[in-house]
Predict the structure.
Amino acid sequence: VTTHTAIIHRQKLLRVRGGTQKLESLIEERDEHHEKERVSEEKLKKQLQTFIDKTHGNPATATQARSRRRMLERIEDRQKLETLYNLEFDFRCADFPGKFMMDVTDLAFHYDAARPLIRNLSFQIAAGDRIAVIGKNGKGKSTLLNLLAGELTPVTGEIVPNVNTKPAFFGQPNIERLNPDVAIEDEIWASNPELPRTSVRGICGIMMFGGDDAVKKISVLSGGEKSRVMLGKIISTPANLVLLDEPSNHLDVQSVEALVESIDRFSGAVVIVTHDEMILKRVAKKLLVFQHGNVELFHGGYEDFLRRVGWEDEAELKPKQEQQKTATLSKKELRQRRGQLMNERSKAIKPLKEKIEKLEGTICEFEEEMERVKTGLASATTAQNVGRTVELSKRMAELQKLIDRGFADLEKAVRLYNDKDTHFDGLLKAL
């Protein structure tokens, strides 16, 4: 979207025509140029000073010495660039011996009975899950995370954590509960008083509160700094289920990247509320989707969701158009239109269904042949039959390529089948 981008870098404002990549390249080039110039000038200054020291008091070289001294005085002192630290951290993972960390059964919640936020929601959080909670503002995403964290009590249904589940919660209620009158290190230390002060100071440093910054009061911090304090509190205690409610709201681009990388390395489960598409595309393996007046579990990533389901505004556009067309139709005309759509649906998806079945059969045949080839290859290797071993190895490689290609074609066919089926299903429902 942007035509120009500006950044505050090393206490100066830099502005370029273009986007962030161009700006980042410019910053890198400037810093590299500064450092090369500084090293070159330091070397020259040493050479000049050495000459001056050697020729000091020698009348024969007095003129040269004065010239070198004036040259030395004209060289400005370039300060070595201060190291810029970015957020880098890892969640401390607690062991979890089981399969499922939490069971949610028939969960329902509302603040106003006339406007239920969650109805009949059931799902499980498994070890290693990456679940993103998505939907429009005000639909109940943060409420769901507060329920999972035990901050709220369900109206009906239950949330049962495994006895070995150790959750950590990053949410708005937690940030608001930071004690404004204490220092950063004391706030982090309060999460795990068993930690030695050196470890607490280490966490402060990781969260970019090094040195004297660690004793700043919470009351003077910005929103982003408070977010980092909350992350510091979370990583001070081992956990195996991390609940994150819009953690990127107050974090800079580099810190969001560090957060995503830390989630990638975390072996526990993560449930995250976010609108950030970069996070959704890189992190989510399952989705809890708030739309159509309720929340449902979607098995798949964000791009899968956009391709197979999509947001209600987009998914309902064509059915609504169809409704407008059919609003004045008679019952007989509606039946005819429904029959027409059923025929169109059959014609559209029947070839795809046949293709899917054919691909599945072909893949099975290749896999069966692969097993026979593996058996033959083992026998040929044992018998030291070099020619037969080479022949079977080549066939095995060919079969693997055919199987991979078959699965790729199958995936495309299934996706196309689902898309067409969903399209006609929406049109039929509109009637």
About this structure: The two ends are 39 Å apart (CA to CA). The first strand starts at residue 4 and ends at 9. The chain has 14 helices and eleven strands.
